[in-house]
Design goal:
Number of strands: 31
Number of domains: 4
Helix content: 25-40%
CATH architecture of the largest domain: 3-Layer(aba) Sandwich
Strand order of the largest sheet: 2-3-1-4-5-6
CATH class of the largest domain: Alpha Beta
CATH topology of the largest domain: Rossmann fold
Number of helices: 18
């Protein structure tokens, strides 16, 4: 299915035309029928001669209901612009066309209606007026079809023109990331909450897990209807009604979005390009405007990024699922004027506003990378709004152009990596100079100093051949924790001279930093404040296991005699063996533990 939105001035016959094409009156409210004027969006469906299914969104033409019109055209890429032959081009004909252009809708059919109520000269004059207005429009190739909903004249021609427009328009984008801007919410008896909208960017399937509303609520799709027919799957471009479970209709409203679970970024701050801002409509450097985005209306704060008002930074009142490339309409609520279109260029921008212009003028891929110098490959899809394949191609292009390097799960600006390598090399060299016995800078501490996560730092170091990580510490690759200095060898030798009753390092005049280093490399072991060499403890363990194999049990006195030491040193050794499972206590005795290698009872 493809969805087409109507557009045009009030009372030019949009609803009557939808009724003639579909057999459905899109005016749903009694007030609309009584006043003969569309107030809210309405819907209808038909099948064209080619077999193409069409969903129509009929929009109000009165200026007072422009926000409903803006909600109705959200998500469509083909429009049916309606102009009355009797009245000609009017104010809302102009504004609705402007809206279509600013939203990037580039395929349309123009219906010149009520031709049987106008003489031919008047109808021809209106047609020329339309052609003149369309001369410089992206929609300049739109055919103009003479028709009349009352007499039926030209309705068949209009159907054929719509068929051609659908055939010529490219298929709706399918990035496998569905999003449905909600334009209607209601509760159906026996079914629960139902939302409707025009589906974009991906398929939706029955029983899919979704997020809906603001803030997002988790839910599941219970039922899908397209043109009042149940379906298990629906594709982009279709008008759909979705029955969702677990969410009250009272918590949702027009402007909310239904998206696939965990696929979308929800920013509150966006950088945008202001498109086709009319001349003589200056914007102050900052202020408030009304932004129409999706089917929602938002009062937003903005700040201009540059003096020419080409770019602006906008702060939304709520976080909503957006993608780079999304289009919006900017209006001045005070004067009720459309000021510009807006195209989103960055989500949750990380650059200072004073630096943003230099980033936003870059090509798409470079712009994304420049504002996110450490870009997680998994986040690229959500950030850009493109599909997995397009995201992969973008990464390959950036790497091929030497603009970025792949670092673990990230794509990193090449200049950032070069700077990082220099910073890390300098910090590590200073550390080794100041701490010649040190084993390196603690990984977490270095990450904090460099404003990186531990995972980012670890990934970066793997790409630097002159740096390495040992036991959570970063050091020069030329430094080996296995190579002991002469001073370290002498300290270990002095402790090992009395292995089971060693002197303190202080008594030996050892450098505290050296002791800390050797403890970190497990050459020395601190047991309850007493420093033993690792070799001494290994010998103690071997001697005690051998004795247990012969006697089955040992007292502290027995161990003291075996090791030729005193209780001061024996108790920390035995507690260490108990804790490691080599021995275990049985009253005042020690017996073999599960890690002794002996049979235990």
């Amino acid at each position: 299915m493809r969805t087409i939105a109507t557009a045009g001035h009030v009372d030019h016959g949009k609803s009557s035309l939808v009724l003639a094409l579909t057999g459905t009156d899109p005016d749903r409210w009694e007030q609309e029928k009584r006043r003969g004027m569309t107030i809210d969006i309405g819907f209808g469906f038909c099948v064209l001669d080619s077999g193409q299914e069409i969903g129509f969104v009929d929009v109000p033409g009165h200026i007072r209901f422009l926000k409903n019109m803006l909600a109705g055209v959200s998500g469509v890429d083909i429009a049916l612009l309606v102009v009355s032959a009797t009245e000609g081009w009017m104010a809302q004909s102009e504004e609705h066309l402007q809206v279509l252009e600013l939203l990037g809708i580039s395929y349309a059919v123009v219906a010149l209606t009520k031709v049987d109520s106008a003489d031919e000269a008047t109808a021809l004059s209106t047609e020329k007026e339309i052609q003149s207005r369309f001369k410089h429009s992206p929609l300049r190739d739109a055919p103009i079809v003479w028709c009349d909903s009352i007499t039926g004249r030209g309705i068949a021609d209009l159907r054929r023109a719509l068929d051609v427009a659908v055939r010529n328009a490219p298929p709706p984008l399918d990035w496998f990331r569905p999003r449905l801007w909600i334009d209607r919410v209601f509760s159906a008896q026996g079914a629960g909450t139902v939302v409707t909208g025009t589906l974009t960017r991906g398929d939706l399937e029955l029983d899919s897990e979704i997020e809906v509303g603001t803030p997002p609520q988790s839910a599941r799709i219970r039922k899908i209807e397209c043109a009042k027919v149940e379906s298990s799957r629906v594709s982009p471009g279709a008008r759909v009604a979705i029955n969702i479970g677990g969410v009250s209709h009272q918590t949702l409203s027009r402007g909310d979005a239904l998206v696939a679970d965990k696929q979308w970024i929800r920013p509150r701050v966006i950088d945008v390009e202001l498109i086709s801002r009319p001349p003589n409509s200056p914007l102050s450097p900052k202020g408030r405007l009304t932004l129409y985005l999706g089917t929602g209306e938002y009062e937003v704060d903005y700040r201009l990024i540059d003096k020419n008002a080409r770019w602006a930074r906008i702060t939304l009142p709520v976080a909503i699922p957006l993608a780079i490339g999304d289009r919006a309409i900017v209006r001045d609520s005070g004067t009720a004027r459309t000021i510009a279109g807006a195209e989103i260029l960055d989500l949750d921008p990380t650059t200072k506003i004073s630096e943003a212009a230099s980033h936003l003028e870059r090509p798409f891929a470079e712009r994304v990378l420049s504002t996110h110098p450490w870009l997680a490959a998994d986040d690229l899809v959500g950030l850009t709004g493109c599909g997995q394949l397009a995201a992969k191609e973008m990464i390959n292009s950036l790497v091929t152009q030497n603009l970025a390097v792949a670092v673990g799960q990230w794509v990193v600006v090449r200049s950032v990596m070069t700077q990082l390598k220099n910073q890390m090399g300098e910090l590590v060299n200073i550390y080794h100079q100041e701490s010649p016995h040190g084993t390196g800078i603690e990984l977490a501490a270095l990450a904090t100093k460099l404003n990186l996560t531990v995972d980012q730092l670890r990934a970066a170091i793997t790409s630097f051949s002159d740096l390495t990580i040992t036991q959570g510490r970063v050091h020069s690759a030329s430094y080996s924790t296995e190579t002991l200095s002469l001073e370290a060898q002498q300290l270990i030798k002095a402790l090992s001279a009395k292995p089971f009753s060693p002197p303190t390092p202080t008594q030996l005049g050892a450098d505290p930093e050296l002791v800390k280093t050797l403890l970190g490399t497990k050459k020395l072991v601190d047991l309850d404040g007493i420093i033993f060499s690792a070799e001494a403890l290994a010998d103690a363990q071997r001697i005690i296991i051998n004795a247990l194999e012969k006697t089955g049990e040992l007292s502290i006195a027995n161990v003291r005699d075996l090791l030729g030491s005193s209780r001061k040193f024996i108790l920390p050794i035995m507690n260490w063996l108990d804790h490691s499972g080599v021995t275990r206590r049985r009253g005042d005795l020690r017996v073999a533990g599960p890690r002794s290698g002996l049979t235990t009872n």
